[in-house]
Glutamine--fructose-6-phosphate aminotransferase [isomerizing]
Amino acid sequence: MCGIVTAVASQDVVPVLIEGLRKLEYRGYDSAGLAVLNGGLRRVRSTGRVAELAEAAAEVHAPVGIAHTRWATHGAPSERNAHPHVSGGLAVVHNGIIENFESIRARLSAAGYVFESETDTEAIAHLIQSKLREAGSLFEAVRLATAELTGAYAIGVLHETEPECAVVARRGSPLLLGIGEHGVYAASDTAALLQVTRNIVYLEDGDIAELTREDVRITDSAGQPVERATHVSSLSADAVELGIYRHYMQKEIFEQPQALANTLEIIGGGGLPIPQLFGADGPAVLGGVRQVLILACGTSYHSGLVARYWLESIAGIPCTVEIASEYRYRSSVPDPATLVIAISQSGETADTLAALKHATLLGMTRTLAICNVPESAIVREAALRFITRAGPEIGVASTKAFTTQLAALAVLTLTLARMSGHIAEDVEARHLAGLRHLPVAVQKVLELEPQIEQWAQRFAMKHHALFLGRGRHWPIAMEGALKLKEISYIHAEAYAAGELKHGPLALVDEDMPVIAVAPADELLEKLKSNLQEVRARGGELYVFADAGSEIPETDGVHILHMPEHYGMLSPVLHVIPLQLLSYHAALVKGTDVDKPRNLAKSVTVE
Ligand code: G6P
């Protein structure tokens, strides 16, 4: 969702701004723009892709600039609503949502400011402008103005009267600084800045920073100077390149063996090294946990749903899983002995962050973030962290982040099971061996791609699809349906197979492909009966079975056998063919696989 890049350097920053926006494209956007200072303010905006903005700005050169990709919230995607927004000689780019923008707008309109867009951001531009005289400097004007904003923001600001600096500020939305050899930069994430530096400074909520060519000054919201440490990013520039792949989603699906191996490296080759897994406070926070509450959105929510089965059956700990956006607004009954887990690939999702804060405010301070971005807001909010090491995930539809979340949750399950004495040594050893073998097992599943591709050809032109699963594979069916919706725009729904006869069976006919996740587990016989119900109504079945699932391939029943049955960790394997299926269906349909319409990778607004 909206991406920001700011640069102040000793050379032309326009190429840096454009390349930075390219690296932020994955976050999702529908228009782009930039503003620079070079003897005056110059603004260029475009409703197309960053490539079009680059063309439009080909003749623009300057040492100071701000740039933005916009994912529309207030007002349609149009050039008029694209950032930067200006007020006199001042320009602003913004990521987030200003909740009190209407009252600010009304007040400033009455004072004579003219609004040209429907955005909340334009209110910030005029508000800062209105503070300039009283403030005496752009920095102070930004500080005074941001004190009046409610909601979330990361902003970059320029003003003609201070042609050698840019001011940035954040609260709720991500923003980090890059200290480079030729200048100082700011961006929504590290990937945008690797082109110029690896020296990264993470701003805290309420921070305001003034960037000049050789220096950066940071204060808190009260104007007190603050020190923020510089981290050297270990992210490799290659990790965000496409390489031999056609799409990031394809690359990320095929990176899963490595991503899992990297994530699981922490468990080593012996027993579970519990003190190392969740940081020094891990044993204290996890000890005496009576129940688990998982908060997450989208694909991360599905990993939580799988974990519920693991936590209850293996660790004997009651677990509830809630959609973060629902949890944060409902009255619930807190129990301080609850371990609250926020799962998020980005660590930025506004609803998950707010739900985590809400749980903490209710007195549940045993919190854990399972996240793929080490310095993200959600990680910093939680008492404990488990960082998945999937590497940057660029495709909007989450794949390797999901399977590495599952790996992390499996490690957590075994940890809690051991700490509560709920697991026998040999059972734990068996599960650990399964975890260590996962990368190899996933690799074998990836080899099924040619057959899955054929299936995708057959049902890509359908308008609807039904996904069925049972037990810990029901969330996998949900994830399969979500993937298909996200990137191929085929309407898909997932049901616990036992629910079929309570409604969705009415939809089944020859036009409704039914995809079943059918591992050789304790629920297989039940699932087979559910599949009979589909076949009897003429529904065409696509069944992902295990080697030992023994479902006969007949007319209208297509079977794909997974290489092995994988017990507890089977959901990690069974999601892979569903990822491939939606990827290939999207290819057939010709959709924008990595940047599906209307969606964003990091959802930093409610
Ligand atoms: C967006 C993404 C999804 C993701 C969800 C939650 O909707 O498109 O892929 O699952 O956000 O994101 P998170 O970063 O919290 O896992």
About this structure: The chain has a mean pLDDT of 92.
